[in-house]
Write a structure and sequence with these properties.
251 residues, alpha/beta, 6-stranded mixed sheet, 4-stranded antiparallel sheet
């Protein structure tokens, strides 16, 4: 198998600058993520994590270079590319006045599923994520943890091969966090590539077998999580993170 066939993400020579900014957010940036991995994009505030997520999913378009997702150029985004990945954003992205069933019907249709596929997938996800009892209630009445689970269900309803997760457990209790992480591990075991970002470094250490640390749009370090901790003689990811990014305040 050729190297390109093994990659979920292949970023080469990428540059991007927001309109009106003096400096590039990214310049000659390169990143490769192997298919089937649990990969963490970590960094302090302002490192460029959310911008990079937006570039990788085609929400933003790079000014230079290439970004390929499972061999497809994301700048030529179309329905075929959209079906390959799912995105679970930090900001909750659903219709508050609709029920879980109605939200999943809408987003499932948007992802190209037919009515039978939507019905089967909705039952499956609501059962897995503990939401069957509230399947017909308005989401706006849900707790924060329940809303996070709906956010996740929407991102995976079409069974994406690559799943992007931006702070997927922010603001939830320990039970919801464990349930979400367990489900993500199950997804990964069936072949789904996970690309995850969070400030929860203990969580990231448990979930991510590989990490990349970003700072000010630069790739500081990348590698196997356990090997990086061992090489830097750090006991945990938080200590390692502070050592490679510094301890000063970040806004």
């Amino acid at each position: 198998m050729a190297l390109n066939d093994q990659l979920a993400i292949d970023v080469s020579g990428m540059a991007f600058r927001y309109a009106g900014n003096e400096h590039d957010s990214f310049s000659d940036f390169n990143l490769q993520i192997t298919r089937g991995k649990r990969f963490g994009l970590l960094g302090p505030n302002g490192a460029g994590k959310t911008t990079l997520m937006s570039l990788l999913t085609g929400l933003l378009k790079a000014d230079k270079g290439s970004i390929r997702l499972l061999g497809h150029d994301v700048s030529h985004k179309n329905n075929n590319v959209n079906k390959l990945f799912g995105f679970v954003p930090q900001d909750l992205s659903f219709y508050n006045e609709l029920s879980p069933v109605e939200n999943l019907a809408f987003f499932g249709a948007w992802a190209g599923l037919n009515k039978n596929e939507i019905s089967e997938r909705t039952d499956e996800l609501l059962t897995i994520l503990g939401l069957q009892d509230v399947r017909n209630k308005e989401v706006q009445k849900f707790s924060g943890g329940m809303k996070r689970r709906i956010n996740l269900a929407i991102g995976v309803i079409h069974r994406p091969q690559v799943l992007f997760l931006d702070e997927p457990t922010v603001g939830v209790d320990v039970h919801t966090r464990n349930a979400i992480l367990d489900y993500l591990l199950t997804l990964n075991k069936t072949g789904t590539t996970l690309i995850y970002t969070s400030h929860q470094l203990t969580e990231a250490e448990d979930l991510c077998e590989q990490i990349a640390v970003l700072d000010k749009g630069k790739l500081v370090v990348q590698g196997e999580t356990d090997a990086l901790l061992k090489d830097h003689k750090n006991e945990d990811l938080e200590t390692f993170f502070l050592n490679v990014t510094g301890k000063e305040y970040r806004d």
